[in-house]
Structure formats: C-alpha cells, structure tokens
Inverse folding.
C-alpha cells in the first residue's frame, strides 16, 4: 500500500523559479510503501533536503501532488501530517531546545494534549527505542554529538511518527555512534527516508534509493544495484561506497545478506 | 575561556542549579515566586531614612543562602556587574541632597548619602532575591508560576523564547568572534571597523538558528504555547514555606525588629 505519493512535484525557491532551469525539483514522482526504507542521494544542492522539507510542509508553494496517507500536504492538514511524519534535522543542536533530554522528548506529546501519564509512557518508550533511557535527565549541552542525534530521533518517535525523515543523519558521527545509529534505525518500524551523502550509511539502512540530479529523479532502484554503478554515481558527483571500492565485485560473497548484522 | 563562553557556561550552570534536588528546589515554583515578589515589594516600601528596618530584611537572603546550599561567593561573582550598576544608581543623591541629618564622629551624614545607601541596599536585596529564585527554579517553572498568577500566556511564551534566543545568539557570537580572532591574531578585541559587519552577521545567523529551532518546535505540534508542568512538588510544604515567609517579612516591615531586640537586651 502506498503511504507516500509524489506526482509531478515541482518546487523552486522564491526569486529563483522564474527561470525554468533553476527549479530545485522539477516534475518528480515516486511512491513509497509501508515499512520501506528509502535513501535519497545526490550531489550538494540537488534538492534532497528540500524534498524532505516539502514532505513535512516546511516549504509552502509547490506544484503537483504530495500526499501522505492520502492526505495532501497543505496548510490545513499540517497538524495531521506532522503528527505522522517526524523530521530529524541535520543539525541536532537546532532540533533540541529544552533543558533536559526528557523535557525535549516530552515536548511533542505535551503539545498533542496527552495526559502526563501518557506523556511519560511515550517519552520513556521513545528513549528506550533509541537506547538512551539513562540520559533522560541529562542536560542537552552535556550530550555528545551521537547522543544528540539519538535524542533528536527520540523527539520525533515520542509523538508516534510512522514516517521518519532524516537529513544527513550520519554527518559528524564517529564510527561507533554511526554503527549504533544504523542498528537503531534497522530496528525501528515504519517508513524511513534518509537523505545523505554517506553512501555506506545508505547501503546499510535503505533497501531502495533515489538518485536526484538537476531537479529530477534519475534513478530509483534497489540500493544494492544502484550503489554498484560507479559510472552513474561519478556522473552525478558521487563516489562508490568505501566497501565497494575496497572489495569490487565481492559484495555478495564478503558481506552478503548478513553484512549489516556484521557491521553492527 | 572567553567572556562569551563564560556567559554561556553561567547560563548552563544556572539551568543545572535549578534542576538540583535541594529542599529549596523542591518548593513549588508558585510559592517561591510569591515570596520573592512580596519580599521585593516590602523591601522597596521602606522609607529612605529607615536603614535599620531595611537591614533586617537581609534575613531572607541570608537564611536561603545558608540553608539552601546556594553559594553566596558564586552569587557575588556572577552578579558583580549588576551590583556595580546598582552602586551607580544613587550616585547623584549625595550631590543633590546635602542636608546634614546627623554626625558619626566628625563625619556629617547627609540625606543624600543616606538615600543613596538605602537605594543601593534595596537594589542589592532585590537582585539577591531574584538570584535565589532563578538558581532554585527553572525558567519553565517560573513561567508556570507566572501563568498561575494569570500572566498572559503570550508573555510567558515570549520569556521562554527569548531565554532560548539569548543562548543561540551567544553561541553564534562565540563562533563569529572565534573565526575573527583566528584570522586577526594580533588584534586585541574586535577592530571597530569590523563591528558593523560582525553585528549584522551575528543577527542574521542567530535569526537563522532561531528559525530552525522554531521549525523544530512547530514540527512537534507547537502552536504558540509551552505546556508547562509544575506539579510533583510538595504542596503542603510549599504552602507553609510561603505563609511563614510572608508572615516573617511583614513583621519585619511593620515592627522595628532591631529596636525591639535592643530594648529586650537592655
């Protein structure tokens, strides 16, 4: 069943869209089904973050169709859409603004009018899923970069988001935190859409990947297939993932289906 | 540590102090806000000649500093700039009012000197009372108490947003000044020619950050009001705390405590 429907989606930032060529997204379309993990890759400025922001209604004024659970993303529906879609910012410092982790994670449930008991249940549940229960009372500025990222994910899980949008989630994470994040993402149910330059991260977390270039979706394939194509990636300002470079043509035998498990 | 970094550090210190598990922190924020407001109002109501009566009002900050595990030394260090400004408030009084009221030995004490001293003491007491409130109560709980006192929600939301904006602005300022100092190593401070550009950049960047934070809030259902939680505090203890302090403070204001103690002793 399609949960996210995007058809003929076109968007340009104010002041730039008079020129046809300066559209950030130009007539793109795709559908995302239940429990799919989808990577969005592409060079800088191709519109990865723009696409994510459009999905939560942070950028008004697009043309075409953009539906989440059959509901059009427009001003009147934003409350409903945003309850279902959680957006994790690239910069966790901008996402976390309360004093403690618990208060920040509890912010959304309180805004959605839950009782204090429900708020506590949702908050602790989100902290458990992201494995940071022990940080509940920790002040935000005392968290490391990896902990901040997990706290940022918990803030959207606590409101029961079924769709998780993440903008460059692995940026500025050390290998251990990166692995922990991959493990947690793989355990989380629901749709995950991850925009990233980190193709190894995309390979580890997404079964399907969209390649954006010049405002269009130039490839929409299984991640394993797309990330093998050196020529395609290089033509669009990307490089083969590290593991593909070191073990060309040996992905299936070295990593195979269990690769992700070995990594984590 | 740079001054800006120190300022950020101090704000974080206050936040952490407000979250500590001390008896003073456990008192309901409403009780603390009421006592603080009553205290400041009573302190300000003393006439300028009643220096002895005013001095007795030191009881409240003194008791809280001693029993509330709040460091007075740190308070002085944190408030030194404010205390300096407070000292300057009545500086013109001795010049404007030169009427001699009494003599201490061969030193004449004028009405201006007395009013300046009273003004300074009043302001110092008010500053310490406010400090004791914020060091034992988080900004969210203070706003919660103010909302309970029927402060318009737009004002409490504004206070909370400004409080967050101050930290964002300080962080952006820190980044900018660091970037500047790294490229102008021999320059002490910021050259006046760069002030305009840096101030503009600071404003723009902190506004960008503030917008991102606001986006994060709206994405999580924020519709113009912070849902504040002040429950979980021991209500009866808080009622006793507020009642006791109000009675004591009113007694100090009405009765000349030092005179009465003096009479009893003699």
């Amino acid at each position: 069943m399609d949960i996210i429907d995007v058809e003929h989606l076109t968007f340009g930032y104010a002041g730039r869209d008079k020129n046809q060529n300066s559209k950030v997204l130009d007539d793109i379309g795709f559908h995302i089904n239940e429990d799919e993990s989808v990577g969005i890759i592409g060079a800088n400025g191709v519109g990865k973050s723009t696409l994510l922001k459009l999905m939560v209604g942070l950028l008004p004024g697009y043309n075409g169709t953009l539906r989440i659970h059959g509901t059009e993303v427009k001003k009147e529906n934003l409350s409903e859409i945003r309850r279902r879609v959680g957006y994790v910012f690239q910069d966790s410092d901008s996402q976390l603004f309360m004093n403690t982790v618990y208060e920040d994670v509890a912010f959304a449930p309180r805004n959605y009018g839950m009782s204090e008991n429900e708020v506590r249940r949702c908050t602790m549940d989100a902290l458990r899923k992201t494995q940071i229960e022990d940080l509940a009372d920790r002040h935000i500025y005392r968290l490391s970069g990896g902990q901040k990222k997990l706290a940022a994910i918990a803030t959207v899980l606590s409101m029961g988001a079924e769709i998780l949008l993440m903008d460059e989630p692995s940026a500025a994470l050390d290998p251990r935190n990166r692995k922990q994040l991959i493990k947690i993402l793989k355990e989380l149910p629901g749709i995950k859409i991850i925009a990233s330059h980190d193709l190894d991260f995309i390979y580890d977390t997404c079964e399907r990947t969209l390649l954006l270039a010049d405002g269009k979706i130039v490839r929409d394939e299984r991640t394993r297939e797309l990330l093998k194509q050196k020529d395609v990636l290089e033509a669009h300002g990307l490089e083969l993932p590290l593991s593909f470079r070191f073990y060309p043509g040996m992905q299936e035998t070295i990593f195979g289906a269990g690769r992700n498990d070995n990594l984590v | 540590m740079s001054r800006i970094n120190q300022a950020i550090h101090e704000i974080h210190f206050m936040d952490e102090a407000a979250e500590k598990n001390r008896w003073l922190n456990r008192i309901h924020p409403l009780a603390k806000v009421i006592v603080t407001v009553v205290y400041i109002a009573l302190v300000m109501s003393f006439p300028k000649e009643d220096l002895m009566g005013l001095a007795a009002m030191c009881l409240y900050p003194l008791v809280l500093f001693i029993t509330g595990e709040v460091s007075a030394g740190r308070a002085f260090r944190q408030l030194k700039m404010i205390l300096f400004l407070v000292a300057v408030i009545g500086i013109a009084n001795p010049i404007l009012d030169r009427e001699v009221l009494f003599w201490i030995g061969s030193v004449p004490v004028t009405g201006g000197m007395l009013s300046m001293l009273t003004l300074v003491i009043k302001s110092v007491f008010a500053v310490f009372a406010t400090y004791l409130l914020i060091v034992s109560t988080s900004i969210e709980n203070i706003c919660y108490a103010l909302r309970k006192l029927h402060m318009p929600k737009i004002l409490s939301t504004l206070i909370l947003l400004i409080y967050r904006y101050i930290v964002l602005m300080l962080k952006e300022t820190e980044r900018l000044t660091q970037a500047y100092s790294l490229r102008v190593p021999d320059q002490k401070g910021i050259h006046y020619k760069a002030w305009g550009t840096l101030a503009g950049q600071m404003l723009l960047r902190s506004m960008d950050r503030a917008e991102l934070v606001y986006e994060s809030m709206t994405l999580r259902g924020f519709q113009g009001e912070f849902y504040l939680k002040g429950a979980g505090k021991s209500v009866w203890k808080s009622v006793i705390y507020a009642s006791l302090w109000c009675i004591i403070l009113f007694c100090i204001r009405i009765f000349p405590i030092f005179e009465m103690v003096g009479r009893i002793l003699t």
The first helix of chain A runs from residue 48 to 55. The first strand of chain A starts at residue 2 and ends at 11. Residues 253-264 of chain A have pLDDT under 50 and may be disordered. Chain A touches chain B at residues 56, 58, 79, 82-83, 86-87, 89, 91, 94-100, 103, 107-108, 110-112, 116, 137, 139, 141, 155-156, 159 (CB under 8 Å).
